[in-house]
Design brief:
heterodimer; A: mainly alpha; 3 domains; about 0% strand; B: alpha/beta; 2 domains; seven-stranded mixed β-sheet; six-stranded mixed β-sheet; 11 helices; 21 strands; about 20% helix
Chain lengths: ~375, ~450
């Protein structure tokens, strides 16, 4: 540890302005701050500061994602072997899924972090830690057999057009991870839709449709049991199938105060109420599906807990968060039931509400402003 | 019965080093008046090094408001006129002769003195600058008729001094001061006390004022919080505010006819060996408080509290408006994987450190930033320590883009930099929010003048 510090101190001048590696300053800084919290002290304002920083925040989200990720690896193997009617045991299943996920993770991080560092260097910024989480989220919301070059393209698109063109971390309008998925969905639909892609190396004879896939084409009798869907023993994107694991993540996010419970709760509420409305309407079999099914099918839970709560792209006012979450839930179920082209509505609902989030905030802030002006008028009278 | 206002949002940061309730004579030799303590003041010097002064002798005045004078708190010799970059006047140092001679401004019967005579005496004696105004936190303008005057008899900041102790036995001068204040405004004088902790009869039995009770975590003791609950500020409104020790200074001026700048200062913080109170005069040098009384090592000396105080040298002087100093360790060290370790001794408002489980734990905190400066990412946190009907992040962003209309609409007149201190502490992005708020207020002040 001391030797490492000494080494870094010795190398540091080369990466400062005028040093021979000044071009790699952002990379050096990212490495250095990874190992050591800097020795910077407060220079103005409050003399003491909270121990939390962006790295701590992101590692917390990372930890919250772990249950879903590890379960997802196991489930990739489980689905694969089940399609062949085999049962080699839990560890081989996990190992199979692990080997499937590893390349996806590596590609996502190498491409994404590479671009982040380049942009940070061009802008003379420090490397923001946001991609630490985005880079993990993207492999978790794609099918296991996605071609790596498509994933690489999607990540590059998300980082460049989702984030950097708007000015980088904190300035983006759309959730970068979802944007990557949306890119794949529209550019390479064959890789990320239908009933062939959700099980890795599926046996041809085996139906690989997700619960939403079944519902879409009217095979309601083939939707798995509630237990299976809640636990996640179903085909789907890599990390999103187990509602239980996602709820564990939600718990971690909420007790640490990193994820916003208001958004999570209102997304679930929005989806449930829309489901109830459809039940009441009951025009077709899909509408008669019990309302809570919508909450455990597809990516609903994952979207509510990990995607809708992205603080940069969500609403930022307390009141706004309720509207924002509620509308996401509502629209997600609406798209599922009404639109035959998109079996999954969560991704599009969140992206749509990302766009409207600033408007919702604007209206909430305006009401505060109006209240203030009214008080002033009363005072003048 | 007076109203009790419950403040729900906020945060009490519990630190080691609260002052023991003992008052010791400081026996300071040197005192200073520091122009940077007065926001927006352009000092014009009236003395030279070597001049003999008495308590109440003018040292400098404000170029733009020349009736506002700043006078010597003690009698003695001017020994130092210290300037910084661009010859900015940093402080005027007086070496006390220990005789405490004072200029006689004449005692006066408060009831029979009219407003003009009161203002005149306050200005001449140099007591006037104890009155500050909102918005902007600048020295009050004698021409204004404030809609109310706020006196806060308690402080909720970390390690704040106990004003019950400081006021003890000063009932007469305190009441005289309040009587004077009531003549300065056509509105009310509000004496705001802590529902639980204000016990001194000096405060509880005060007359000629409206007593309001507050309870809750910091910033429950801040003037802006009091105003927001009692009498919210609108654009164009002016309120004045001051602390209990300043009220007593005003009282003494009228009872005794002299500028008696006596102050009791709490020396606090984890690095002070015997934290306690010191009796001295305004602007005392802290040397005697800390000699043989601080731990070894690199320490930060703060005039004021850890949230809003000013960094001073270890032979520096207590600020004009401060009733305490705080000494905490500097945090200039690297921490190996600090962001990854569990961190049982780290303070955090978030739940990302296990220390959150121990609610009454007292901390020894240093000045490390604990991370690098980043873009704003986290939202919804500042609101939890910000007890105003104002959107803090939106106001911060309005200031960043220097949109004055938007700042006004979002309520900038209702707050001051100190109200954002907690937001700054808990900010994941490590930005200097108080500076920013100050810049926003200064921008408007210049635009308006």
């Amino acid at each position: 540890m001391k030797a490492l510090r000494k080494f870094l101190d010795k190398q540091k001048p080369h990466f400062e302005d005028g040093g021979k590696f000044a071009k790699f300053h952002s990379m050096f800084d990212a490495m250095e701050t990874l190992f050591f919290v800097p020795d910077k002290v407060t220079t103005s304002g409050a003399h003491i500061r909270d121990a939390i920083d962006m790295k701590r925040t992101m590692i917390t989200v990372f930890v919250a994602l772990m249950p879903a990720l590890l379960f997802g690896m196991w489930n990739i193997g489980y689905q694969h072997f089940t399609s062949y009617g085999e049962n080699p045991g839990n560890w081989p299943m996990f190992w199979y899924g692990f080997l499937k996920m590893l390349p996806l993770l590596i590609v996502s991080y190498v491409v994404g972090l590479g671009l982040e560092i380049i942009f940070a260097q061009i802008r003379h910024h420090d490397v923001n830690e946001g991609f630490f989480v985005t880079g993990l989220l993207i492999p978790m919301i794609v099918p296991p057999d996605i071609p790596l070059w498509q994933l690489a393209l999607a990540v590059a698109f998300a980082v460049i057009f989702g984030k950097e063109v708007f000015g980088g971390t904190g300035m983006n309008v759309l959730n970068p991870a979802l944007l990557a998925r949306a890119f794949l969905f529209f550019a390479y639909p064959a890789s990320i839709s239908g009933d062939k892609v959700w099980i890795a190396d599926k046996a041809d004879a085996f139906s690989g449709a997700t619960p939403l896939g079944h519902a879409m084409i009217g095979h309601f009798d083939q939707i798995p049991s509630v237990y299976k869907m809640f636990m996640g023993f179903i085909p789907g994107s890599n990390g999103e199938t187990s509602v239980l694991m996602i709820l564990i993540g939600a718990f971690i996010l909420i007790i640490t105060g990193i994820g916003n419970w208001r958004i999570m709760v209102s997304v679930f509420a929005g989806g449930y109420i829309m489901g109830l409305l459809f039940n009441w309407w009951g025009a077709n079999e899909y509408m008669e599906l019990p309302a809570y099914y919508h909450l455990i099918m597809g990516g609903f839970a994952f979207g509510a807990v990990f995607m809708a709560t992205d603080p940069v792209t969500a609403t930022q006012t307390k009141k706004g968060m309720y509207y924002y979450g509620f509308l996401i839930g509502l629209i997600a179920v609406l798209i599922r039931v009404f639109n035959p082209a998109y079996p999954e509505g969560v991704m599009l609902a969140i992206l749509l509400m990302n766009v409207f989030a600033p408007l919702i905030d604007h209206m909430v802030v305006q009401s505060n402003i109006k209240r203030r002006l009214k008080r002033m008028k009363l005072a003048i009278k | 019965m007076s109203t009790v206002y419950k403040i729900k949002k906020g945060l009490d940061i519990k630190l080691i080093g609260e002052a023991e309730k003992i008052i010791v004579d400081l026996k300071a030799k040197r005192f200073a008046v520091k122009p940077p303590d007065f926001i927006g003041c352009f000092p014009k010097l009236l003395v030279q090094e070597g001049d003999a002064v008495k308590a109440g002798t003018p040292l400098f005045f404000d170029k733009y408001r020349d009736n506002i004078r700043f006078t010597s708190p003690v009698s003695g010799i001017v020994t130092g006129i210290e300037r910084g970059a661009k010859r900015k006047l940093l402080r005027v140092v007086i070496e006390s002769d220990g005789k405490e001679e004072a200029i006689d401004f004449g005692a006066a019967d408060v009831d029979k003195t009219d407003r003009d005579a009161i203002v005149d005496k306050l200005l001449k004696s140099g007591v006037w600058p104890v009155l500050r105004q909102r918005p902007y936190a600048v020295v009050a303008d004698p021409k204004d008729d404030p809609k109310a005057i706020f006196v806060s008899a308690f402080d909720t900041a970390p390690l704040a001094p106990d004003f019950n102790l400081i006021a003890h036995g000063n009932g007469e001068v305190f009441q005289a001061g309040l009587n004077i204040l009531s003549k300065l405004t056509s509105g009310k004088v509000h004496l705001n006390i802590d529902e639980k902790n204000t016990t001194s009869k000096v405060f509880l039995n005060s007359k000629n004022v409206q007593i309001n009770r507050f309870t809750g975590p910091h910033p429950a003791g801040n003037v802006s919080v009091h105003a927001s609950r009692i009498d919210p500020m609108n654009k164009g409104d002016v309120i004045w505010y001051l602390g209990p020790q300043e009220v007593m200074t005003i009282g003494r001026l009228f009872l005794e006819g002299r500028y008696d700048a006596e102050r009791i200062i709490a020396a606090t913080g984890s690095e002070i060996l015997h934290p306690r109170y010191y009796k001295t005069f305004l602007g005392a040098r802290i040397t005697n408080m800390i000699s043989d009384n601080v731990t070894e090592g690199n320490n930060r000396f703060i005039s004021g509290n850890v949230l809003t105080g000013a960094k001073i040298e270890k032979d520096g002087f207590v600020g004009f408006y401060d009733s305490m100093i705080t000494v905490i360790p500097e945090g200039d060290y690297y921490e190996f994987f600090g962001w990854l370790k569990p961190g049982f001794n780290k303070f955090s408002f978030s739940g990302t450190f296990p220390s959150k489980l121990f609610r009454n734990k007292k901390y020894r905190l240093d000045t490390n930033l604990h991370g690098g400066v980043r873009a704003y990412v986290m939202t919804g946190k500042m609101e939890r320590v910000f007890p105003f009907d104002i959107f803090p992040l939106q106001l911060i962003k309005a200031i960043m883009i220097e949109d004055i209309d938007l700042m006004e609409h979002l309520g900038i007149y209702e707050i001051d930099a100190e109200d954002f201190a907690l937001c700054e502490v808990i900010d994941t992005s490590k930005t200097n929010i108080q500076d920013l708020i100050r810049n926003g207020l200064e921008l408007i002040r210049k635009e308006m003048s």
